[in-house]
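Lecture notes, part 5. Sequence design as translation. It can be helpful to think of inverse folding as translation between two languages: the language of shapes and the language of residues. The source text, in structure tokens, appears below.
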């Protein structure tokens, strides 16, 4: 037994067939004014029987089932009556006609007859707007307009739609006044189309082929979209939305490109090939009047610079490892031909360690890779990276020299290699970059001049480091005892520790003979200078807060040792060194006199010191090696008194 829940007047009801597909459940849509219901049937026959009954009932021939279905309503016509003209009231016939039009509109919308529905809703809105008292009809028309527009928008959002279908939908939305929404839906659909086509591409391990196909999909669909857009939306104020959409899609392309090319750390040759495929498609857009090259440069410039920095980091990591494992022995000799600055220093060949050789190879490889992606916009980053690699290696040399104990020979080889980097590696790298950029890369050429003082800085580090070491193992002024209670006689000689110090200077001098490109005189002179810098340091003249003490014998021994050192080293002693030596002797003598003012013991004069020095030099004879100019022969001439005046006791 069935009980009716609600009933409707047949004249106010619109029945529409939703579809016969089994998945839709054989539905029928029933619309009663603002209410909508869906009824399902077990099969198509039951549904068709119900529709036929309703059709005949509305036609008034329920008893004769073979009668024709009701005709579609006639087009809306303005209805005027004397009453309407008098007070704007709506007649019952006019109201009934309006309701029929709304029912018909529901049927068109339900059957997705968008063209007919658009025409009808526009007529309905026109009639309702021209007649007073139809406020509810105007509201119903607006509601149906929104429903119809949303359905058309849903159709427009379907990706991969044909141009004809898109044009029809945009035209209907334009008639309904939904231009802005149509524009958004159209661009969203084109984005979905691009995404759909992109998903169909297969990577298959070939990055270059994948990017080529990706560029074709993206940029040709962008071109088509721009052509369609100009035809569908003639309003110039809407062009900004197209530009924003193009930027959005360019950014989407860049994300995929970045993921497969830059993030995978591809070689620059592969990157260049992928960029060329992209530019080829962008050029096609340019011929069509849409130049996107500037957008492409904006998108990929940060990635290209990041890629160069990553290459720089890998080079530095590799060179740091090579430098840390370098034995600092000569690995090869390279020609200085075509490099006049290097030839002036080294002669025809340069001895280099393995780190310098690897640095030159890395910079050459770097340049060979860069030539595939080089452009003026990358100039600053390329120069910065090359400078960072070169300066990174030089800093490694400085660290090694300070922290590693490698011996005189190997550390001198490091000094030579530093000069080789500046005089040979940098000019080669600059010439290579000149060819790549097609112009003079002045920043790299100027680097040679900017770093020309760096080898001298390393030389100073070498001298400071070894002056301390030589002092500690021979004549250690810091711990030496100068309060010895002994008698000063003519048999007094320079201390054995001072002779050992001179012997170590001789070892350095012999090692320097193996490296003619290094300034032997300058290095030995700096070593001697650093020795006196230690002596004059005020911290070495105090002991637990008290001043350093000297005995009569101790002060003479110190002055004699210094006198001996200066006479043997001769012209290697600089003016500043000579002044520091005088200050050391003077401080020692003042310290002695301050503590022994009343003892009145005799102090020896300059001739006494000269005699003791000459006696020792005669005794040692050939024991001293060559120290450089002024010591060319291992004979008495090596100790010629043509040296600077030694300090004279006061």
């Amino acid at each position: 037994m069935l009980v009716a829940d609600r009933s409707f007047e047949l004249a106010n009801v619109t029945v529409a067939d939703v579809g016969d597909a089994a998945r839709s459940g054989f539905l029928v849509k029933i619309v009663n004014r603002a209410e909508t219901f869906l009824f399902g049937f077990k099969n198509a026959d039951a549904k068709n029987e119900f529709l036929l009954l309703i059709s005949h009932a509305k036609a008034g021939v329920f008893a004769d089932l073979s009668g024709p279905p009701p005709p579609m309503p006639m087009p809306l016509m303005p209805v005027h009556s004397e009453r309407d003209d008098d007070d704007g009231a709506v007649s019952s016939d006019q109201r009934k006609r309006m309701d029929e039009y709304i029912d018909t509109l529901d049927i068109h919308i339900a059957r997705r007859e968008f063209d007919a529905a658009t025409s009808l809703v526009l007529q309905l809105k026109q009639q309702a707007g021209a007649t007073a008292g139809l406020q509810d009809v105007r509201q119903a028309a607006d509601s149906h307009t929104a429903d119809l527009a949303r359905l058309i928008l849903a159709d427009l959002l379907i990706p991969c739609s044909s141009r004809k279908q898109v044009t029809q939908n945009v035209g209907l939305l334009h008639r309904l006044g939904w231009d802005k929404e149509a524009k958004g839906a159209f661009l969203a659909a084109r984005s979905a189309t691009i995404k759909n086509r992109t998903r169909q591409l297969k990577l298959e391990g070939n990055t270059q082929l994948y990017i080529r196909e990706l560029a074709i999909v993206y940029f040709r669909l962008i071109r088509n979209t721009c052509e369609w857009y100009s035809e569908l939306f003639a309003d110039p104020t809407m062009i900004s939305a197209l530009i924003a959409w193009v930027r959005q899609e360019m950014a989407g392309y860049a994300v995929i490109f970045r993921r497969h090319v830059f993030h995978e750390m591809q070689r620059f040759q592969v990157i260049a090939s992928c960029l060329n495929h992209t530019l080829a498609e962008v050029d096609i857009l340019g011929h069509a009047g849409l130049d996107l090259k500037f957008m492409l440069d904006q998108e990929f410039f940060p990635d290209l610079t990041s890629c160069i920095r990553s290459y720089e980091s890998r080079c530095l990591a590799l060179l740091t490892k090579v430098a840390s494992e370098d034995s600092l022995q000569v690995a090869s000799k390279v020609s200085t031909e075509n490099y006049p600055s290097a030839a002036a220093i080294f002669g025809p060949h340069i001895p280099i360690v393995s780190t310098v050789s690897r640095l030159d190879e890395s910079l050459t490889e770097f340049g060979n890779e860069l030539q595939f992606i080089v452009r003026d916009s990358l100039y600053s980053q390329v120069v910065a990276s090359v400078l960072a690699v070169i300066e990174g290696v030089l800093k490694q040399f400085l660290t090694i020299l300070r922290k590693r104990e490698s011996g005189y020979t190997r550390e001198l080889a490091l000094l030579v290699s530093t000069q080789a980097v500046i005089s040979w590696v940098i000019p080669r790298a600059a010439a290579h970059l000149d060819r790549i950029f097609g112009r003079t890369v002045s920043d790299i050429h100027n680097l040679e001049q900017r770093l020309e003082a760096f080898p001298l800085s390393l030389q100073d580090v070498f001298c400071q480091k070894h002056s301390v070491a030589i002092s500690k193992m021979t004549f250690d002024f810091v711990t030496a005892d100068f309060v010895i209670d002994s008698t000063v006689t003519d048999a007094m000689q320079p201390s054995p520790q001072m002779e050992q110090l001179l012997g170590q200077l001789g070892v350095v001098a012999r090692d320097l003979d193996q490296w003619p490109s290094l300034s032997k005189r300058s290095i030995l002179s700096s070593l001697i200078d650093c020795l006196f810098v230690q002596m004059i340091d005020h911290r070495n003249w105090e002991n637990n807060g008290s001043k350093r003490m000297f005995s009569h014998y101790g002060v003479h021994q110190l002055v004699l040792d210094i006198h001996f050192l200066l006479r043997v080293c001769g012209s290697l002693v600089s003016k500043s060194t000579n002044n520091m030596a005088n200050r050391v002797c003077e401080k020692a003598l003042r310290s002695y006199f301050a503590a022994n003012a009343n003892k009145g013991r005799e102090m020896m004069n300059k001739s006494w010191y000269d005699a003791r020095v000459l006696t020792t030099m005669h005794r040692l004879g050939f024991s001293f090696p060559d120290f450089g100019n002024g010591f060319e022969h291992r004979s008495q001439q090596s100790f010629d008194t043509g040296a600077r005046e030694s300090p004279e006791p006061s």
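The translated text above is only one of many valid answers, since several sequences can fold into similar shapes. Residues 542 and 548 are 5 Å apart (CA to CA).
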